[in-house]
Design goal:
Length: 278
């Protein structure tokens, strides 16, 4: 939610106020979910075959009706290199479930502001105080790793997880923060796992607290003041088309909410237990 509001308030309004998402699956997002579910199986002690089955099963259930030819080809390509990605993860770690304090753990910080709770899901936090987040990426460009790190440092996810852990257990705050990046095969380059250290987040903790406070207050103000107003301010266009394709809500922004366009969307299903029950 925080990321969406920072990128485009109208995107946020569509997704979290109108509560609609495209019927067509976002294949890159769904592939990331499949990988996360498989890696969770790994850390719970399951064999490779079970982890692969859960990931492949998730992708097999996707409704491909709305996908164009290129998107279907990309999805097939993802299915092809899924076994190698998981094999690399299994080969890169010792399978010790006891090393993790938190694994896909939801957190809730109640009454951050009156009536406002902050929540999220932490990928993995170990007993040796290492906070990790898992991503998949393609190695494209000579400086891909430094560019990837710079983008990750501008993102709010890991700083928020670090903030949540320090709130829950101040004496056991993360001492190291990293991204585990599964690199997809690209031309002659094989699949591999890269670790990207992000310990700058630790040094930026006080700054992030102030940024978080500002962002949450702004968001609460918009929801409470302009909840019935539409549209909300849009970005300058730089986020409307990305490397993943056009924004999910571009048809509504360009051609408004006609019945024909609204058929492209459905009600959003909440993935966090704390928000489903809150």
């Amino acid at each position: 939610m925080l990321r969406s509001a920072g990128n485009c308030k109208e995107f946020f309004r569509r997704q979290f106020v109108e509560n609609i998402v495209p019927v067509k699956p976002a294949i890159h997002r769904e592939f990331g979910i499949a990988i996360h579910r498989a890696v969770q199986f790994f850390w719970n002690g399951s064999p490779y075959e079970d982890a692969y089955e859960i990931a492949a099963g998730h992708l097999a259930l996707l409704d491909e009706t709305g996908l164009n030819v290129r998107e279907r080809e990309k999805l097939d390509e993802m299915r092809d290199y899924l076994p190698d990605l998981l094999a690399v993860y299994y080969e890169s770690h010792e399978q010790e479930p006891a090393v993790n304090v938190m694994l896909e753990r939801e957190f809730v910080h109640k009454n951050y502001l009156p009536g406002v709770h902050l929540c999220g899901r932490i990928d993995r936090f170990t007993f040796d105080l290492v906070l990790s987040d898992l991503k998949t990426a393609s190695e494209i460009g000579r400086n891909w790793k430094s560019d990837y790190k710079e983008a990750a440092l501008r993102d709010c996810a890991l700083p928020l997880y670090d903030w949540a852990i320090t709130q829950m257990q101040p004496d056991s705050a993360p001492k190291s923060i990293q991204l585990e990046v599964l690199i997809k095969p690209y031309k002659s380059k094989p699949t591999r796992l890269e670790v990207v250290p992000l310990n700058e987040i630790i040094a930026y903790r006080e700054r992030f607290k102030r940024q978080l406070d500002w962002r949450v207050r702004e968001l609460v103000h918009y929801i409470r003041t302009y909840g019935q107003v539409q549209p909300w301010p849009m970005n300058d266009g730089s986020q409307c088309v990305s490397k993943f394709g056009p924004c999910e809500y571009l048809p509504l922004c360009n051609w408004v909410s006609t019945p024909k366009n609204l058929k492209l969307y459905k009600q959003r299903e909440e993935h966090l237990e704390s928000r489903r029950n809150g």
